[in-house]
Structures
1.
Amino acid sequence: MYFTGTSRINEKQHLEIGGVDTVELAKQFGTPLYVLDEWEIRRRMREFVSTFQELDVSAQVAYASKALCTKTLCYLANEEGLSLDVVSGGELYTALASGFPKERIHFHGNNKTMEEIEMAIDNEIGAFVIDNFYEIELIERIAREKGKVVNALIRVSPGIEAHTHEYIQTGQEDSKFGFNLIDQALQATERVYHSKQIKLLGFHFHIGSQIFDMNGFDKAIERVADFYQLLKEQFQMEFSILNTGGGFGIHYTDEDQPLTIRSYVQTLVEMVQKHFTMRNLAFPEIWIEPGRSIIGEAGTTLYTIGSNKTIPHIRKYVAVDGGMMDNPRPALYQAKYDAVIANKMNNNHKEKVSIAGKACESGDMLIWDIELSQPEPGDILAVFSTGAYNYSMASNYNRVPRPAMVLVGDGKADLIVRRETYDDIIQYDIVPERFEAKKAIQSK
C-alpha cells in the first residue's frame, strides 16, 4: 500500500487525508468525489521552486493547468510563486478570473483560435508558445491591429520519442506539435526574429508525459543546444530562455519508480549546463511546466461500491458509481491505478476483483485484477493518484453529472467544485419551437 502526502489510517481504521476521514467526506459530499490534499500540492510546488533556488539557477516553474484547472488551483499556484501554462481560452479565462498575474501566464496550443489570441493579447499575457506558421500570421496580424508587441517562444520537435504511451509522446518528428529541427524551426525563427510584433525570447520543447528515464531529456537538450549554437554562429542570434516542458512521471502503482522532484530538476539543470557549456553558449534561464507531478498524487477519487458479478474460474467484477465519465484514462491509455477500501483499512482478508465503471461500455474498467478487502455494496473505494487528467478530461457520457471536488487540509474540507445536477445537464438543450407547437396541438 502506497501512501503519499497526508494520507494515513486513522483510529477508526479508515483512510484519512488532510486530517479528514474519507468515509465522512463521502457521506457529506456524496460520491464520486475528487479529494485534493492541499499540503501535498503546496509541498510539490515549493520543492520545484526551491530546488532551482538552491542551485542558484534562474528559472520559471509554470504549473501546467491542463492537468487540473480550477480557480482554486490557480490561487495555489500564485501563492506558491509559480507561473501558469494554459492551452485554451477556457483555461486562460479561469486563470484571469482567479486573479492570476497575467505576466506569468504562458499560452500553448497547436491551434489557437483568433478569439483566444485576441483574449491573450488584450490581457497582455507573459508569452505565447508558438506552434506553427499559421499562428505566427495570426499573432502578427492581431498584434498589429491592436498596436501591441508580444513575447513568444517557438516550440520545436527535437525528434525524441519518450518511453511512454504513444498517445502522450509529443517530441518525436511525426507529431502535431511544433516545428521540426530539420528545416521548419530555422525558417520559423527567422520569421519571428525579424517580426515587428513579436519578441522572440527562446525555444520550447516537450517530449512526452509520465517519463521516468531522463535520457530522453538529455538527447532533446543536446539537439536543441545544437540549434542554439547554429543560430549564434551563423545568424548572430542569441536567446536567453530554454523551456524544457514537463512530463515528469509519478507513482500510480508499484510498477512506477519516479525520481524525486529534486532529482528531476537537478538532473535537468546538469544536462543544460553540460550541453550549453560544451558549445560556448551562455547558460539560459530554464522554464519548466510540471502538471501531473504537482497534482497527480495529491488527488484521490472516492466511489461507492454497488453491484458485483462473479464469472466462475474467470473473475469477479465489482461496480462503482463512476467510471470513464470521471476518469477516462484507463480507456484511453490503459492507465493503471491502485486503490483501497477506505472503510476497511484494517481488513487483511483480500479478494481479487476487477473494478468496473457504470458507463454503458464494455471498456469502462477502472482497475483490472486488484486485491481488495472484501468489497461489498456500500463500501467506499478510494482510488489513488487521480489528481491529474481526471476532472480535466471528465465528460457527461450517459448524461452523468460530473463529480464534486474538495480541498482538504488541517482537518477541514472545502468544496472547490460543486457537483453537477441533472438540471445542469439539460440547461443548454433547446427544443425547436415547431416541436413545441406540434405538442400543444396534439394535447388539445
2.
Amino acid sequence: MDIREHGSGNAGATNTFRVLGPKAGTFVMVVDMLKGILAVRLSYLVPIYDSPEHITQLVNLQIGLGLAAVVGHIFPIWAGFRGGKGIATLFGMVLAIQPLVALCCVAVFLMILFLTRYVSLSSIIASIAFPVLILFIFREKELFYRIFAIAVALMVVLTHQKNIARLLTGNESKVPLFKNRKNKEDEE
C-alpha cells in the first residue's frame, strides 16, 4: 500500500499512525529516526575527526550528513520526490549530535501535544524551540550549528504550510490522546 494515497497524503510517521495504526506508525517513526542517527554516525568513520582539535569539522560533517538524510527523506528519489516532512529524521540527527537538546525539544513537543493534541503544531513549536535552546540556553559556540538550528526552524515552518493553514481555519486533525481511558470512563 502506498501510504501517500491515504490520509494526509504524506509518507511520514504521523500519517502512518493515522492510517495504519500505532504499530506501523511506531515502526516508521523509529526507522525515520534511525536514518538521521546513522547518517550522523557515519562521521566517525573518518579517522581525522577523532581528536578534540577537529571538533568544528566533526560537527560540520555531522550536520552535512544529517541534512543529506533529512533532504533524502523529504525528497526521496525512488518515491517521485514525495516523502515525509523529515521531523523524525531531523530528531534522530539532533539526538545523535546533541542528545540533551533533542530531549528538551521532545519535552516541548510532548507538552504542546498534550495541551493541543495537534502533532503539526507540536512539531512546529518544538522546531522553533530548537534554535532558542541552541542560541540562548545551551549557548552553542559552533557557528554552523547555530545557523543550522535557525534553518531547521524555518524549514519545518515551510514544510508545514498546509498544516498551518488548517490550524488557522480549525480543520487540522487532532490525535486522540487517552482515547481508551475516556472510553472506559464513559462505560462506568
